[in-house]
Structure formats: C-alpha cells, structure tokens
User: Which sequence fits this backbone?
C-alpha cells in the first residue's frame, strides 16, 4: 500500500479489443454450465433445457453520452436497447435486466425518474423485466451499467464463429446514421455554448437524431429470420461500425471477406447530412458505430428466403482466410479493410 | 433538450432505500420466469427445474474504495466477494459473473492486471466463472460493476420475507471489524498525507484490515446449514450494518424483533481498536457495515442443530410487528432500533 508502480504499459498501446483479449487470457471456465464465456455478444449458460444468455454494458457520462443534448428518458431507453441488441445478436430473447446506477447529488429525483421512465419504456416495448439493481453515489458524472439476461434453445443460439467460406454477409436496416446524428448534435452544442440565444438547427434530421438518441434493437429481424426458417451461421450487432464487426466474424469464424461499397444500406438523410459535414457516408457506415443493426451470415441456399425482405441488405460474402478482408469500392478497386472501431483509450 | 428542470426533489430527502422503493414502484414484472424482482439480495429467475439467481453491485472510486490504501488485487477480490455474498444470502450457489469496468488512462495495463488477478482469485476460490464483461473509458475514477448469477433449487431459496414470530435471529462470524479497519486506514492515510516520512502504523490490526480490504463471503455457512438440515426462514447479508439488515427482514416478514447487545459477536481486536478510536463497538456492529456476514432466522426447533456451531451467534428473536424493533442493552434497558445504514446520498 501507499506505493507507486514502476512498470507501466499504457492501455492505449493495446486498444479496447487488445485489452479484452489480454484479460480473457487469464480466464478459465470451471462450471460445466458455462457454455460460452468472454468473446461473443453475450455469455451462454446451460440450465438443462433452455440456455441463459447474459450480456453487460456500461455507459459513462462524458464518454458515451452528453446530457446537454441527450434527454435522460432517451438515455434510459438507449442504455437498455444496447444491451438487448447483444442478446438478439445471439438469436436469443431478452427476458430480464438488472440496472446499476451511480449518480451525484447534481441529479434530482425528477431527473432519475426520467431516466427510469426511459428504462421502463424499453422494458415495456421489448417485454423485459427489470428484476434488480444497485443505486449508489458517484463523485462526478452519471454511470449506468446494465446486465441483460435472455433465453434461447441451445441449438438456436448463433455465435460469431459459425460462418463458412461462401456464406453471404447480410446487414439489417441502414448504417452510419447514428454517427452522423452525433456530429450534428455536437455541432449544435458548440454553437449553443458560444451563443445561447441561437436556437439549435435540427431541421430535416429527425431520422439520424433518433438513430443516435433512441436506437431500436432489431427484435423484428430475429423474428422474421425465424419465420423464414433461416438460421444465420454467424451474427453480431453493429455497435462499433461495420468494419470492426465484420472483422470479429472473420476472426472467430476463421474466414476472410469481400464487402461491396455499392451494396451498403445508407439512408438518404444520413447521406445528405454526412456530405454537409464533409464526411464520406461509406466511412460513416464502416467506422461510425452505434447503429445497433444486426450483421449476420447465411448459407447461399437461404438467399431466396430473404431476397424479398426489404430491410436486409446483402453487402458481401465470406472468402478463404488467406484471401484476406477487402472492400470493393464503387470504382471497382479492391482495398484492404482496416480496423477502425471505436477506440476506448 | 438544452433545458433546465424547474421541479426538483433532492435525492438526500429519500435516502438510498427510499429511492429504491420509489423506483421499484414503477416496475411491473411481465415474464412468468421472473419469480422475484427488486427487493431481495438477488432476483430469482425460473428456468424450469433449477432457478437462476442474479445480483448486481457497483463500486465507485472515492465512494466505495480508496486506492491509496486498497491494493487493486484486494479490490478485485472484494468486488466479486460482495456480489457472491448476495447470492449466498439467497441460499444459492454462485456460478458465473460478468464484470464491467470503466477506467481512465491514469491506470496502466499492469494496474488493470492486478485488479483482474484479484477478480480471478475470488473466482477460483468460490468456483465461479467470469463469462463476460465490458471495458470502457472513464473521465475520472475507476468504476466496477459486477453481476453475479447463481443457481438453486426453487424450494431451497431463502427470501427476506419468510421470518415468523418466535424465530431465532442468527448471525455468522463477527461484526464491526470492517468498519473499525476502515477507521484505522483512514487515520493512517491522514498521517501519511501530512508527513509522508512517517510509516503507517498498522500493527496488531491484521484481522480488522483483512475484514475491510478482503472480505470473505460465507459459503461455508450455507454449506453447514445444509448439512445440519437447517433451512433458514429468512436471510440477508450484512453489508450496511446489523441494524439496517434486521430492519429489512422485519419489514419484509411483517414482524418486529428484540436484539440483545450482550449476544453480539465482536472480535477482541475490533473491540480494542474501536475503543482506541473512542467508538462504541456495539454501534460499529449495528451501523458499521461491510462485514458481509449472513443474518438469518431459524425456527426455534432448529436451535439444537446449530447450538454447537461456534461461528453462528443467536442475537435475538422475532416478535409481533406491533411490539416494534428493539435492542436490549447490557444494562437491561430496552431501546428502539434506529435505521443507521450506510447513507448513499
């Protein structure tokens, strides 16, 4: 105690994924019920019969959200939504959440009620029970940590590791909107701080603002795939951007991939506003993050079953590991995919 | 957005338990598998056959721990221990944990490794698997949020609400040590900050320091009660002090209680060091907190089965609700028990 450490490796030298891999190397599973530990969207626990699927996420004020433009009710909704998204990404159904919140006396009861109203709204919408939690003091900002618990038949669970060469790479909804929405909010905040008399200009941006402030996890996609009798071979949710997520699928499945820029689903509003910010919409889709769409692979034989589903786009296919990870751009040039996920440190 | 709230109720006007009750009133369970939600040490989820028991706790730097005297390895161990304690307090066996950590770049990789070594030590000792988590950035201090998942046969689970009039009130181990240990650490920190050349005087205090820095959840008590075929009627772990915990049991069981000061288990070192700080050892036991012992009630008929168990003390009995909650002090005076749990706000 009362000592300083000599030996020091900066966390920035590892990055978030490096740190997770490093910490995971210490971990060894002991209980036969622990089917899957670190390394997917959620852990899988076998309870004889159905499996339990568990995922946790922590949101920190000033890092993951900014209360100047994020209403607390939306924040509560989003905090639940991002956790449920992880459970859906295992092809499981979320059933319960526990919520731990640290807050300072800067927050009034009314403020906390708003936060919990948002949490409850998400619980109602996705038929999830809030079954426990912890409420404690923070010395500075607000911290929200949610653990979601879901259920699935063991044989229904979809891991990141099941993709095969030739599988089609699919993504739900559209990409890049949440990131462009954040750029808009941050610009208007800067203007507001410089001159509080100027009203924020958020016109013609409803869609991208909602993508940023109140994302909806894709339960509907899970349900539709089930109805269509399509069992994805691998799946992950898009929290850090398409590029980072497809790399996870390839790494864990032992494959490479080819993505086609002209197949990327980008909403017209995302496209237009990205241009306004001199951003490349494709880069927003690849590296923006926070879209909470589902990225998954299917067997080529299943193509006909989902072909007419307007809210699923086929953006590429899996290739042999040795062929590497590439993007074919609109000019037909093949460029190497680079990791550009959200950098935590 | 960009707005201020007019209406404001200070959180301090409710206190932690008031806030929890208030927030719980918004919550309604929808899934039949959610057997027990907010309001006990852990939630209970029915998975056909065995039940799943879930508990979550958040530790915030500067509120729950002080890294000047808490080694990170001990902190990791303690963060797990306090969660497992909640699972044992349901008479369940912890099986998995997920760990979310927010940290700033003030921490090096070596520091985080120490933290996770402590987490892993606790996992190894209690045969628990770390199955997932989240690692993210913090703008200021370290925040650790752990969710523990346990299993139990449904009929074995012990709630806070099952005590009856006449039941004996039992507590494991001894009380007040963790609080007195904290007083000692804080005194030595003050001295050290005033004059860094003075070495901390922590002699003859090993036991209370360990109680504060590295508490051990009482799996052994759960196992021994099972062997002795004693099924507690109600149970809770002592995190906020005996007074606060016995109030929870009485409130949820609809009883009153009488505690006897001369029956309180207090270690000689706790007693001696408390006196050194001009603290009443009884008050430390009643209101100190962080002992992580088990407080439980048993039927009078079970008395013979645990009578010879040296690590369980009978400290009182349940009475009718109308008789209220009282402490009989060493002079034989009956005084009303007051809520003096840890105040979060």
Assistant:
């Amino acid at each position: 105690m009362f000592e300083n450490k000599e030996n020091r490796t900066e966390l920035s030298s590892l990055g978030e994924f490096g740190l997770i891999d490093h910490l995971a190397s210490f971990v060894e599973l002991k209980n036969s019920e622990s089917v899957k530990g670190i390394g997917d969207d959620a852990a899988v626990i076998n309870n004889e019969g159905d499996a339990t699927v568990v995922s946790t996420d922590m949101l920190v004020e000033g890092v993951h959200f900014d209360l100047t433009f994020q209403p607390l009710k939306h924040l509560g909704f989003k905090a639940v939504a991002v956790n449920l998204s992880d459970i859906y990404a295992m092809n499981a159904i979320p059933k319960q959440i526990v919520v731990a919140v640290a807050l300072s006396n800067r927050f009034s009861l009314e403020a906390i009620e708003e936060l919990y109203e948002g949490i409850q709204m998400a619980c109602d919408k996705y038929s999830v029970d809030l079954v426990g939690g912890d409420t404690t003091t923070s010395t500075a900002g607000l911290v929200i940590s949610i653990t979601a618990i879901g259920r699935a038949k063991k044989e229904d669970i979809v891991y990141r590791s099941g993709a095969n060469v030739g599988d089609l790479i699919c993504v739900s909804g559209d990409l890049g909107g949440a990131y462009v929405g954040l750029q808009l909010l941050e610009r208007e905040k800067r203007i507001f701080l410089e001159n509080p008399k100027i009203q924020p200009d958020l016109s013609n941006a409803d869609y991208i603002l909602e993508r940023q402030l109140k994302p909806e996890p894709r339960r509907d996609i899970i349900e539709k795939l089930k109805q269509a009798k399509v069992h994805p071979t691998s799946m992950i949710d898009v929290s850090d951007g398409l590029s980072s997520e497809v790399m996870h699928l390839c790494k864990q499945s032992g494959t490479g991939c080819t993505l086609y820029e002209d197949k990327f689903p980008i909403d017209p509003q995302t496209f237009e506003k990205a241009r306004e910010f001199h951003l490349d919409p494709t880069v927003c889709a690849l590296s923006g993050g926070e879209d909470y769409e589902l990225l998954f692979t299917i067997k080529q034989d299943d193509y006909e079953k989902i072909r007419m589903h307007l809210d699923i786009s086929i953006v590429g296919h899996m290739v042999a590991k040795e062929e590497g990870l590439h993007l074919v751009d609109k000019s037909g040039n093949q460029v190497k995919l680079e990791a550009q996920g959200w950098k935590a440190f």
